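Data card: per-record layout.
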Amino acid sequence: MTLRVVVILLAALAVASALFRAAATIQPRGAVAELQRDALRAMNGDEALLREFETRFGSRPAMTLLHVVPGALFLSLGLLQFSSRIRNRWIRFHRWSGRVLMIAAIASGIAGLYFGVVIPIAGFGEASVIALVGAFLIVAVVRGFLAIRRGDAARHREWMIRAFAACLAVSTVRVIGGIIQLFMPMAPTPTIVISFWAGWAITLAAAELWIRSGVRASLFTFSTPRSESEK
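The structure for this 231-residue chain is written out next.
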């Protein structure tokens, strides 16, 4: 129950952030964009960082939308993929939505690699973690797809859990960054680097522990899948 609530809250935070960013990109002078600016100022008050942040995304609207919209789709619909009730009752929906989500994850991941590796705000510390996690996300999605194509549902679930965790970690990063700013404020660059590395490490480690624990229950119903025929 606790895990379910934490995952849903983190996913909701990530989806809301992505939709806010999409709205701010479409209407850079709109109310949502102003709200984001006020929130960023409240967190650190660094006007130079604010300008760099807006230039990074605002001057590349197509790439920004390619990153945030598929990412929001992957996290929102991805939650349903872990429901054994949906898999058992609507297997066709599970399969086709899974294909859509694979494309969404790869598209969002490639755009994320562009922002984090080609034009990072926090230099090498940010670029290195984004390169590792972005590559890991794409590999996990592809391996999950290949596993189910050869009929290995167990490996498919494991790799998709890892892929989902890699995306979900963007919320863990935000939570850790907020904690740092509240209790031990520091310059933007070390805050970004520390929160990025810690957020992804914690989330991916938690996912790996869940996988290795041998628990095969649904994230939502905590019921055991019927059989390997679900693949």
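Known properties of this structure: The mean pLDDT is 85. Residues 2-219 form one domain.

See the next section for split statistics.
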